[in-house]
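Components:
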Amino acid sequence: MSDIHPEPLTAAAFAPFGDVLDATADFRLINDGMCQRHHDRARLDFAAETDATNRPGISIFKATPRALPYRFDLIERHPEGSQAFIPMSEQPFLVIVAASPQDKPRAFLTNGAQAINLHRGTWHGVCTPLSAPGLFAVVDRIGTSANLEEYRYPQPWVVLAL
Amino acid sequence: MSDIHPEPLTAAAFAPFGDVLDATADFRLINDGMCQRHHDRARLDFAAETDATNRPGISIFKATPRALPYRFDLIERHPEGSQAFIPMSEQPFLVIVAASPQDKPRAFLTNGAQAINLHRGTWHGVCTPLSAPGLFAVVDRIGTSANLEEYRYPQPWVVLAL
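Structure:
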């Protein structure tokens, strides 16, 4: 069975894979009450023990929008660090993750006001916006060692339309 | 003279204060050519030498939208770390910075596809979206020591409408 039904992204469902970063949980008010600060929402994790050059950085990704149904056969993971995807638009995007290459992947759909942080080593699909502009700020590992493992499924998966 | 004319945000004009993070400069193609990676665009800088607990983190800010003309009399800075503001919408926002409390502040207006990273210690105004949702991911210093200095001007400044 190669079909995957997309699920709404929630912190509880996503917990095995990473963090959901949004403005729904506890906050403190700053700036004379004009701003909610939802503090320290991502488990950033960069493998300094394996490579002393590892450090966090912010990069900008601009990805081609995809459409549902969406077919894929590739997942990847980054052994040297966590990777946060912060959408610079209010457009929902697709988040594909897998517990392992042997497990069926899961597909989550954001609500337009959520960023995610993939924990270090989480298997995931490539960046898949569903609308223009496909613009993201990405907080991930900057360093010199190899930081990409890929796995190609023998048969493609299809994320179904809602 | 208390009026400030807002300027378009450009990397050159903003260089004394911080980094402009956008998809305009050099990139490498990833994900089979489907994604531009504009690599490592922010000078992250967290003062490990003054406080060993300092580390970067990602918080979510939700700020009340303001309107132009915008009156303010407060600027602040963070001696322990840089601070990046990544808008989670395509709405332009206002960025107020000052070389020092004795210098006239400057006001920059983003183009809807720009994030910023304030360098460590840069004097700046509070988070000022100009439209809903006022949602930002903020990459800044997480730690236990004091990290806020404020300066209140004897007279308010006014950022004029365009």
